[in-house]
Amino acid sequence: MSRLRKNGQLTEACELAEQLLVDKPNDLFNRRAAAWVYIDILKLNGVFKGETLSKLEKLCALGFDAGEKILWEQLYWIVAKEVFKLTDETPSTLLYRFETCCQTFAAVPGQAYSVMLKALVKQALKWKQFPAMVASWGLEHFQTSDFEGETLQNGKGIPSLVERTYLAVSKAYLTQPYADASMIDFLHQLNTVSEAHPEMLYLIYYRALLYQKMGQLDTALALLRPFAQKKKRDFWVWDLLAQLHPHDHALQMACLAKALMCTTPPEFLVKIRQRFAELLVQQERWDEARVEIEALIQVREANHWRIPNCVYEWVKTPTYQLASKRKSNHDLYTQLAKTADALLFSPSNAHIGIIWHLNTEKQTAQFFVDEAINGGFCYAKLGVNAPQVGQAFTFWLQEVTHKDGKYWKVDKVARCEGQIAPNQIKSFNGRLQVKGRIGFVGDVFIDIPAIDASLSHAQLVSGTAVRTYNLKNKEWGWKANKIKSVNLA
Q1: Residue 326 contacts residue 290 (beta carbons within 8 Å)
Q2: pLDDT in tens, 24-57
Q3: Under DSSP, is residue 245 helix (H, G, I), strand (E, B) or coil?
Q4: Which of 109, 99, 50 lies closest to 79, judged by CA?
Q5: How far apart are CA 212 and CA 239, in angstroms?
Q6: Could you tell me the residue ranges of all domains in the chain?
Q7: Any residues with CB less than 8 A from the CB of 344 and at least 6 apart, and which?
Q8: Are 432 and 462 in contact (CB under 8 A)?
Q9: Fewer CB atoms inside 10 A, N or C side of the chain?
Q10: Do 347-415 and 425-487 come out as alike in CATH topology?
Q11: CATH 1.10.3470 describes domain 347-415
Q12: Distance CA 77, CA 473 (A)
């Protein structure tokens, strides 16, 4: 056998190996000998040919487990090389047979396995059974380097192999007509890796899409919010938010209007514009609808795309013909956008707090909700004009995990006229105790030069104090922010 292989007499070697298998089918050495002959044939002639593919099928039928590490690694290299150079001309019947074989592969972690997976992920659109293929190996065999982003020869950066794999499987599941048990199992794994690696931002998006497919719209929306806050300039985020509210036409219109406000080539907005026009037609707002209809017709005709029948029907109606011609619906978009923007912030993430410190030079502020929820933010970037210490605001917050610990990120802030909690601000009155340039009324610290230089020891003082962090003592205390009255008695 070895001599035949070394001499390149693979046909004769194959005949001999298969005869030995007939004589002793369970003999491990016979099975290994046959497997290596098949490996040689695949290496020489490729995989995606009828005759050689049958050799891959026979090799897989031998039932080797991951213990045959060298054998599998050799096969992985061969498969990777062949898959990378696949073309659209490969018959679908051969692709299907190949996929079936892949589901019997043993998973042997290592460089060869990762390279084969890269090839399969790159050609993911060609596979009809990609989720089943990946599930048969499991998603726990990645190397440490597979979690790192890659740089191509042209200098372009691409996501890590782990992220690309999960995205490819997610996209494959989204093409299925319904959610099945395997998709639910995969979603659990996707949740785990996404939560462990928040830097893989687009995994969150596909988690939301999969939950949407399962009909769990509230879960999808909760997942999408932080993603949408970061990608709010991308039209497709607003498109998905519209889809997550199938029974609320007002919210759909708001989200579609927001999508149409994004800086995007008009070719990408045709379907969104048509849906927006349809909602306007349903409300008999023909003046606004005509703007959208004319715009989408113009783009479709310029690109020689078919105009949908419903659009033709709209154009034929007398109400369309009588509608006034406008240049744009920009004012309508702006009006609706406020409703869409509110979707980005969950009511459960809203907290009422106070400003307790300002740095006007850097335009930053420190806020306090309670001793567990507090932090800082740049008020200029969030559109807050001239905040004052002691003012109450509603803060939309998300807890962010950082390498140095956790902190509260302010996503949105709005002036609040509601009742302030007693742990945030309080009234005080009593006799002032002065120590040098500072004073105290009970547990309230008073910065005399900053608040009222005329204050003196033993005066009766009343005012309001805000919760403040004492850096020296590393604890929360009270600091006067306003003196209401001073009594000399």
Answers
A1: yes
A2: 888 899 999 999 989 999 999 989 888 889 999 9
A3: coil
A4: 99
A5: 13
A6: 2-230, 243-342, 347-415, 425-487
A7: 225, 228, 229, 232, 411, 412
A8: no
A9: C
A10: yes
A11: no
A12: 63
Angle 161-174/181-196 helices, nearest 10 degrees? 150
Q: How far is CA 296 from the centre of its chain?
A: 30
Q: What is the pTM of this model?
A: 0.71
How far lies 129's CA from each of 277, 313, 489, in Å? Answer: 38, 41, 88
- CB count in 10 Å sphere of residue 462: 16
Q: Residue 398 has what pLDDT?
A: 82
- Binning pLDDT at 50, 70 and 90, where does residue 488 land? low
Tokens at 343, concatenated? 């979707």
The DSSP string of 180-227 is: -HHHHHHHHHHHHHHHH-TT-HHHHHHHHHHHHHTT-HHHHHHHHHHH
Contact 455, 446 (CB under 8 A): yes
Task: Print burial letters for 160-177: b (CB count within 10 Å at least 16), e (below 16).
Answer: bbbbbbbbbbbebbeeee
Task: Please tell me what DSSP assigns to residue 22.
Answer: H
96/136 Cα distance (integer angstroms): 16
Which of 149, 117, 114, 113 lies closest to 130 in space, CA to CA?
117
The closest of 244, 408, 273 to 340, measured between CA atoms, is 244
Q: For residues 33 and 14, what is the distance between their CA atoms, to the nearest angstrom?
A: 9
SS3 state of residue 377: strand
| Average pLDDT taken over every residue of the chain | 91
Residue 433 CB neighbour total at 10 angstroms? 13
pLDDT, tens digit, 9 for 90 and up, residues 183-215: 999 999 999 999 999 889 899 999 999 999 999
Token reading at 175: 């093409």
**Separation CA 341–CA 229 (nearest Å):** 9
Residues belonging to the chain: 489
Reduce the secondary structure of 375-396 to three states and give it as a string.
EEEECCCCCCCCCCCCCEEEEE
pLDDT in tens, 394-424: 998 888 877 778 899 998 898 887 778 889 9
Taking the C-alpha atoms of residue 190 and residue 149, their distance in angstroms, rounded to an integer, is 18
Q: Which helix (H) or strand (E) holds 20?
A: helix 10-23
Cα separation values, 67 from 26, 70, 72, 113, 297, Å: 17, 9, 9, 14, 62
Phi, psi (degrees; rounded to nearest 5) at 232: -70, -10
331: left (phi over 0), alpha (psi -120 to 50) or beta: alpha
Distance CA 162, CA 165 (A): 5
In this structure, what DSSP letter does residue 124 have? G
Read off φ and ψ for residue 394, nearest 5 degrees.
-95, 125
Neighbours of 296 (CB within 10 A): 23
SS3 string of 58-76?
Answer: HHHHCCCCCCCHHHHHHHH
